[in-house]
Amino acid sequence: MQLHFSPSMRSITISSNNGFTDLMKIKVAARHISYRTLFHTILILAFLLPFVFILTALVTLEGVNKCSSFDCLGRRLGPRLLGRVDDSGQRLVKDFYNILNQVNTEEIPDGLKLPDSFSQLVSEMKNNQYDAKTFAFMLRAMMEKLEKEIRESKFAELMNKHFAACSIPKGIHCLSLRLTDEYSSNAHARRQLPSPELLPVLSNNSYYHFVLSTDNILAASVVVTSAVQSSLEPEKIVFHIITDKKTYAGMHSWFALNPVSPAIVEVKGVHQFDWLTRENVPVLEAVENHNGIRSYYHGNHVAGANLYDTTPRTFASKLQARSPKYISILNHLRIYLPELFPNLDKVVFLDDDIVIQRDLAPLWEIDLHRKVNGAVETCKGEDEWVMSKHFRNYFNFSHPLIAKHLDPDECAWAYGMNIFDLHAWRKTNIRETYHSWLKEVTYQLLSFLTVCNLTSFPFGLYSQ
Length: 464
Known about the structure:
This protein is an alpha/beta fold. Helices cover 45% and strands 10% of the residues. α3 (88-105) crosses α5 and α15 packs across α17.
């Protein structure tokens, strides 16, 4: 960079080193400028020129599109104002988005060979020189393949959990067989439960009466033992255990050989109740004998199911609802408690999948105000899986019969532990209402499964 002064000192020229390009030229009027002013001007220029050189170097090194210095502002805005913008990078991104949208709407070509990993994909792209559209198709196909495998793995996990929960482990199955054999060969296993002198207690309303309906011997033992151990007055506990005919001998043997004194245990089979006949429970016979219903609960739970139209959580709920136990008579016995125990005024009904952790005697002190059922509501909690249940979780409200009579927002309740006022119950028509609902839909068995889960719970909700 050079400074040139004219002989008359009327102009100053700033040029590049080669002398061909004039960067700045200043004309000075003789009568309006003094040497002092000229000296100050040259001094200021000498101070600013190094900064001009530095900014020029930064523009050269950084480039116009990436530079961050103040001088780049003009270089960025200037071409835009003149309509000369280099938007090749933006066009490339826009074209890539268009290709992705096109690939998303088209079918994946048949016979497209997919790599097993991302590194293999990159290697094939280099070797075969794939275009952007082919790359997008391969990427989409790989992602869909992985999503399918993950989804199938999730559903397989849910199925395995369902089978593990519903199946009878070999040890427990053998336990029932051994106890049945003990019943036939051991007199102590056949002794009367309870002993004859305690029979009046079975209808004494001053005791705490629990009803347990199950065919699981080990589960019944857990419920009974935990209730006795948690009670402050175990001598006032009376358990009425109801089981089916095939499990009765094993269940009786267990509690005969393993007493839970001082509590009292009664074991009865459904075949020992004179009232519990097919004439009084006609619907259950129809349900158990219908091939479509039996296939629904005992058949292949995956066959015919569209795994892409349901979520894993919904699938798990359907698996739980299709447990074969729901067409067992034991699952419907609670509706007939007033008839099965005509001399009792109040009972606590327990499921066989619970463990008692505190004294339940205060339940008998609750005034139900002539209501039949005392239970815990399951629609007022933060737990979305258990404590957010309404009628819509159990009934199909797209069915006109359900939509006409029920409210989907009605609160449901836990059925694992209920206290029933049997005296008040006998003054109602709950059993008749329950039967009428079941008959109305179960005599149209093909459409029944579209109404609700075939359990005692849904229509028991409405009946009570």
